[in-house]
Write a structure and sequence with these properties.
The structure holds two protein chains of two kinds.
Chain A: H1 4-24, H2 27-30, H3 52-59, E1 62-66, E2 69-70, E3 74-76, E4 82-83, H4 85-98, E5 104-108, H5 114-119, E6 125-126, H6 134-139, E7 142-144, E8 149-151, E9 153-158, E10 173-177, H7 181-189, E11 194-198, H8 201-209, E12 215-219, H9 220-228, E13 240-242, E14 250-252, E15 255-257, H10 261-279, H11 287-292, H12 297-303, H13 323-331, H14 334-341
Parallel strand pairs in A: 1-5, 1-6, 10-11, 10-12
Antiparallel strand pairs in A: 2-3, 3-4, 7-15, 8-14, 9-12, 9-13
Chain B: H1 6-9, H2 13-24, H3 28-55, H4 59-63, H5 65-70, H6 78-99, H7 104-120, H8 124-150, H9 155-176, H10 186-212, H11 217-231, H12 235-249, E1 255-258, E2 261-264, H13 272-298, H14 301-309, H15 314-329, H16 331-344, E3 354-355, H17 356-363, H18 373-402
Antiparallel strand pairs in B: 1-2
Classes of the chains: A alpha/beta, B mainly alpha.
């Protein structure tokens, strides 16, 4: 029979598929933990949402979704280590949970994949310059913890252009990246301007140097990064000025999955604790002194030590009471994290939203008690 | 080689002048075209060379060279990659020697291309190891040539070499696998995805092609459906689904166990590499199936009928008559598909993997190297091209040995 060999081949194919099917079998149960909320945490051991902490502890490592392409915030250094402002917050959470900031795996994610990765349980926490918006908070099934960095759209011009305010560019050509929210914000702020779109910052910079546009708009953190690396042949960083006005709100911070409040609380209060540590003047260097003799009750509570012989404050977060000691020892306070990562790319902290509330900024921590 | 390049090999000033006259300036229109083309090539070449030697700052590659080659693979484990490199160069030399005479021109071209790569590999240890790998390649090649000269019949050796390539692949995965796959990156990851994708999708493609030609409707419909659905979906969509949708459908403790290897396939195990590999393999298999179907249709029906008349079993007909001819006929398309798969692996960035192209993006985020895209992309392009060019030359060699187009 002519078709016999075909049947044999077909039999082999079916066998291969059967093997594959065995591996993927029983997926009826696997999907069951979605609870109809559409954001099942994909780890399905008990069917409840509130188990990220238990999963993290069982695994022995934290999985943090990050960026690997933003100078100062999330990138990979020459030795292959992740580094940056967002990365330090990941390490801080690992330090809080395990007492060891190295027990964290970083998953670099694209902008398109980041929310899905968290929704489907690929990662425990997303710290990847993600702007907190109403629709993201409500419809993505994710929760935004406290803002760790207030970014916003700004405008960069040539220093010798003499431009000092955004309004002076009302009907000028402006260089902008295509398909970004920055493009929309530009249209709102300067409706009569002439946007000149580019696919990437490289071509944009070339066009800017050639004088095809008078202004270059993007998030200020990005502008600062580009400015600090502006070629010396064109005058170096000093040839550019970032105007003071910020015309969009981009609050960036960590995200967790909706419905897992215990885990959300840990992520949220680790970030808040880092800010509070700066408020209290606790640094990675003088940590031992504060532990030995805390200056006030709140400092003692923050560090999980006794104040003048009183009871040790229990945060109720379900992790060690002295977790902030490990965090501060690992990454320092907010000011130290900022100094280490953001200052080198040339963004001054004084006078911005990222200063402590006491200094006129927006960083404010609810009472730690 | 081609006819046109022959005269260049036996060059004299006189023949060169005649060749140029006949081929480049035979008519006024041709002369104009030649001058214009030379101008365009000259300007482009001048631009690239001026950039490469004067304005480019190659520090970004020197500093990050380890990332380009092995990604975040820990420095104290890099010796594993070296073991694999030595294994491959030894076997490649052996195989080349067993199958054909040395291709001096190809070797010279690759040698020249490797010079810039060498320049970036500063540091004695790495240079010594690289030189060692090249030396092993030459040595095993010479040894294989000697064996071929000594014994006329090397069929057994050739069969052994093919088998040992497959074993080497498993051994390499075993050696490298001691390091979490999360840390794999750079050229290492690109090569693993490409090689594993090719090795796995090839048999799957053959089965799909045979299934599509089946007279058994269920199988045929299944295979046609599979091929058409996969070919109708962009690879990036498949990668995205493999990465994020698949884990939702599978329980956490599940893993594929075969031959003593256990490959976890669930979300928290984070085996992005395996999932990306699955997507690349399934994608490529559909395209290979269509290529192979073309080859199957090129085998005359009469041959199968004749073989049956002789009383050969169906398996024998398939293995000895149909497939050898079918596959040989489509070698150029097969290799084209493999090269395309090799380049398609650059899409795995969506899965959180940092392959060779991904490294070019991450290293330019380092404060010292912001805006050095041109340098890193040029370097990555060179690496991609060296690999793709080698594949294409190997396929031409294979075609010559098997006499494609001559029978």
């Amino acid at each position: 029979m002519k078709k016999n060999w075909l049947l044999i081949a077909v039999g082999l194919l079916v066998a291969v598929l059967a093997i594959a099917a065995v591996a993927c079998g029983d997926d009826d149960d696997g999907n069951g933990n979605g609870d109809g909320n559409g954001n099942g945490n994909g780890n399905g051991t008990t069917g409840t949402h509130e188990q990220t902490l238990a999963d993290v502890l069982a695994r022995g490592r934290l999985v943090c979704g990050v960026n690997n392409g933003v100078p100062g915030f999330g990138f990979v250094d020459a030795d292959g280590n992740f580094s940056g402002f967002d990365i330090d917050f990941c390490r801080a959470i690992a330090a809080a949970v395990f007492g060891d900031p190295t027990l964290v795996d970083f998953i670099p994610l694209t902008a398109q994949a980041r929310l899905t990765a968290l929704q489907t349980g690929q990662i425990d926490v997303l710290i990847r310059n993600t702007t907190w918006t109403l629709s993201r908070d409500v419809s993505s099934g994710l929760s935004f913890a406290t803002t760790t960095y207030y970014d916003g759209q700004g405008m960069m011009v040539l220093a010798d252009s003499g431009i000092t305010s955004v309004d002076e560019l009302a009907d000028s050509p402006i260089c902008v990246l295509q398909g970004t929210t920055t493009e929309q914000n530009l249209a709102t702020r300067l409706p009569d301007s002439e946007p000149v779109g580019f696919e990437d910052n490289e071509t944009l910079q070339v066009a800017f140097i050639e004088g095809r546009c008078d202004g270059w708009t993007s998030d200020k953190s990005q502008l600062a990064g580009r400015r600090s690396a502006f070629p010396e042949s064109e005058g170096g960083p000093d040839a550019l000025v970032i105007l003071t006005e910020t015309f969009s709100k981009e609050p960036l911070g960590p995200l967790t999955r909706d419905g897992d409040n215990p885990w959300f609380d840990i992520v949220n209060w680790v970030a808040l604790g880092i800010i509070l540590a700066e408020e209290k003047g606790i640094t990675s260097e003088n940590l031992a002194d504060h532990v030995a003799s805390p200056g006030d009750v709140e400092t003692a509570s923050l560090l999980g030590v006794s104040f003048e012989g009183g009871d040790i404050f229990d945060s109720g977060l379900g992790i060690d009471t002295d977790f902030m000691q490990a965090v501060i020892a690992a990454v320092g306070n907010y000011g130290e994290i900022y100094e280490r990562n953001v200052t080198p790319i040339g963004i001054v902290r004084e006078g911005t939203e990222n200063a402590l509330a006491a200094d006129g900024g927006l960083l404010f921590v609810p009472p730690w008690k | 080689m081609t006819v046109l390049s022959r005269p260049a090999a036996t060059i004299t000033l006189r023949t060169a002048r005649r060749w140029a006259y006949e081929n480049l300036f035979s008519s006024p229109a041709n002369s104009v075209l030649t001058v214009l083309t030379l101008l365009v090539i000259g300007v482009a070449l001048f631009g690239v060379l001026r950039f490469a030697f004067f304005s480019a700052e190659w520090e970004v590659i020197v500093v990050n060279r380890r990332q380009f080659f092995v990604g975040r693979y820990p420095v104290e484990e890099v010796f594993r990659a070296w073991i694999v490199v030595f294994m491959i160069s030894g076997m490649a030399g052996l195989s080349l020697g067993l199958w054909s005479k040395p291709g001096v021109r190809t070797a010279a071209a690759l040698g020249i291309l490797l010079i810039p790569v060498f320049l970036f590999i500063r540091g004695g240890e790495v240079a010594a190891l690289t030189a060692g790998a090249v030396g092993l390649f030459v040595l095993s090649h010479v040894a294989a040539r000697a064996v071929v000269e000594w014994r006329e019949n090397v069929d057994l050796l050739r069969t052994l070499t093919i088998v040992s390539w497959l074993i080497a692949f498993l051994v390499a995965m075993f050696i490298l696998g001691e390091v979490p796959r999360l840390l794999w990156g750079g050229l290492l990851l690109t090569m693993i995805l490409a090689v594993a994708g090719i090795v796995l999708s090839f048999p799957l493609g053959i089965l799909l092609a045979l299934g599509r030609a089946s007279t058994f409707p269920v199988v045929r419909i299944f295979c046609v459906g599979y091929i058409e659905i996969i070919r109708g979906v962009p690879l990036i969509t498949l990668l995205f689904m493999a990465q994020f949708i698949l884990p939702l459908m599978i329980e956490p403790e599940r893993s594929i166990s075969a031959l003593g290897f256990s490959v976890p396939i669930t979300g928290y195990e984070m085996d992005n590499v395996v999932r990306a590999l699955a997507a690349v393999t399934l994608f490529s298999a559909a395209y290979l199936a269509e290529v192979i179907r073309g080859g199957l249709q090129a085998v005359p029906r009469g041959q199968v009928e004749a073989a049956k008349a002789l009383g050969l079993s169906t398996t024998t007909i398939l293995a000895l008559i149909v497939l050898p001819q079918a596959l040989r006929a489509v070698i150029p398309s097969l290799v084209g598909q493999f090269i395309s798969l090799f380049k398609d692996t650059s899409l795995v960035a969506i899965a959180g993997l940092t392959d060779l192209l991904g490294v070019t993006r991450t290293v330019t985020a380092q404060q010292a190297f912001i805006g050095k895209q041109a340098e890193v992309l040029l370097f990555a392009a060179l690496l991609y091209w060296i690999v793709a060019f080698s594949m294409s030359r190997a396929s031409q060699r294979l075609e010559r040995i098997l006499g494609v187009g001559e029978r």
